[in-house]
Queue: 2 jobs
Job 1
Amino acid sequence: TKRAQPTADGAPSPPPMCASRRRAACCARLELASVIPARHDPPQHDVSIMNAGANHSSPPLTARLLASRLPFHYGWVVLACLCCVGFARQGPAVATLSIFVEPLTREFGWSRTALSGAVSLGGLLAALVAPLLGPLLDRRGARLILCFAVTVNGAALLLLSLTPSLLVFYLLFSVARMNWAGPFDLGIFATLNNWFIARRRSAASIVTLAHMAGLMAMPLIAQFAMSQSGWRGGWIALGAVTLTAGLIPVWLFLVRRPEDLGLAPDRPLAAQPDAAVLAETEPRFSRRQAIRTPAFWLLMLYTAAVYPVQAGVSLHQAPHLLQRGLDPATTALIVGSFSLMSGLATVACGVLPRTWPVRFPLALSAGLLVAGTLLMPAIASTFQGYVAVGLFGLGIGGALTLTPIAWADYFGREHYGAIRGIALSTQVVAQAAGPLLSGALYDLTGDYRLALQVFAALSALAIAAALAAKPPPNPFEARSARL
């Protein structure tokens, strides 16, 4: 033990404080500060977090006026905005497009590989945009980007009702799909992870539930409109819903991060002091630091294995069910139940204890995908269709909810956009490859059996990647220990 050294006036100086004692003292000060109610004063977190809000556009006036009058944390208003835009996002989802596969191929004679190519092209465009978009979101926030994406998608879906050729279809749908895969995904979850730490899993499950509600509602909306006005009426209905649900809440109320309003993530209160401690000790990886960890590449492998399955099966599940002898109305209901089961899995993810490692439910989600894809080739009745698609939906719901959480839990929120932007490129390329692969294998073999077997193997690979992806050491804590 080091002895106290005398100061200039001869009095002994206090012994040096070790890193663990400094951290304990810091947490104690944070817990004491959380007891004092202060609506507008920013929490005393590390300077790097506070500086992260220095370069940003001002919050909208409506948000500033509302935040000072609410009896609850403004993060829940932000969450409601993200739910609206998450619902509106699902117009160009592959599950929605699957409703249009039969009428488009019947009217124009397009192959299913050609239709899948529009999804793939949109994904490739998003892969180019995402790494550039991530750092911009970290600095400026997602409000304007999400408003632009909603407006463009609504217009593209409306114009798809006028499609005269495959070239025009590619132009419009690939742009909408690019927004779906890039700006929507990155903007929604970057904002969510900025506003929530202790309640991140609950908040993510609520947002993903809104996504699933849109994924369940949009095919039904399209199917109903198509029954009245044909496939062109289906596109008009989707465009109108997208613009109505997604634009106004985001424009009026979305705020980049809580520090922009003088708040803290989760609103640390005396009743929940853990939120302040989590904000102080959360991981803070730069993009360069994250890339150097094994966890980054294992999560990338999980993404590359799961998302072709998600997109490849979702787009072709309706044609597969029709090929197995089910009628169109029953097929639409089963496709809707896929979203319902995904929603149930999302709710389950939201109630998982924060202390449970995220890699274990990620592995379970991939296991459910294995079961669902192996059962789908044997579907011979409505009941079997519900079982196979239901298991698949549970797996997709878990994977879609937990993957963004894993990136934020492992690498923090400060550079989430930059880190997730790279990973999102892998995700959208994988999503682009899935429909193309399943469509090509269908054209080659005449059914979806081989494609489903390939997707089962990819899901099994994802199980191994998830189990191996342990959280990396926090570089912030390592620096503190060296001080």
Job 2
Amino acid sequence: MFSAASVETMLRVPRNKSDCCCRNVMTRVVLAEPAMAANFLAPVKTDKQIYENSMLEDDPNANSAVTHEEKIKPRWGPHHKGAQELANLYSKGKRIQECICVGVCMTLMVINLFFILVHLRFESLSSIVVAALCGIVTADFSSGLVHWAADTWGSVELPVIGKNFLRPFREHHIDPTSITRHDFIETNGDNFMVPVPVLVWMAWHFLTHSELEVQQRFSWTCYVFLLALFVAMTNQIHKWSHTYFGLPSWVVFLQEYHVILPRRHHRIHHVAPHETYFCITTGWLNWPLEKLRFWQALEWLIERTTGHKPRADDFKWAQKRS
């Protein structure tokens, strides 16, 4: 920042043409600096944008404030035609897959947690804490990357992944509260599937390696375990960020202190056209990634390379209002 004295010196009456040019340049720098700082620190979405371009999930009487047109052709919610079509695509086969994934993942989690507690040594606690924290941050970034990819690209019509994995993302944008009506299996089935191969490898590592070999890689093992745990729990945390009534007090505490994704924080993502704040585990990385324009840069690169428009399928489903 420039001091008052330096600003005064720069703005004195110039003695020659060169001095005049220098003064003009420095004046623009001084005046631009506060504007740049204000823009950098400005909120990603204003309260007005949130109110006008997202569903008011925290107000049970919000429907009384909608226009007549929105009652006939709802912009969001369970009465939206597109949301109803997408909800009906949830199949029995999908349910079976989710049940299997939840059962297998939870079993492997318990087995690996047991081995970790058996091999835990308090003299290495500091490195374990750092590794665990890195695992949580990695999970947050991973949630953002997967969320961004599924929100932005692909189509429900794609074979296998369309109805099974992209469908919930499309439904969620036009009926954000649908996730609060899903049970534990439907909410977490896909996320519990992701860490299964890693958890199998961890269990095999504990069972086939000596104590010395386990201790040599123990910090790395803790990193992978916390990464797997938070990846598995991401959609449950996401569900809590849409739940405004009846949450346990300990969940509200974690949200208020931003240990996990807060409700107010996640509202920013649900402002149409849903182009920012994709990280949904803790949300710690959302602000820096937005200021770096990380997602926008990826979208620009992919669009220039492939010609595909970001969020085209998402927009198509949003238009099916009646």
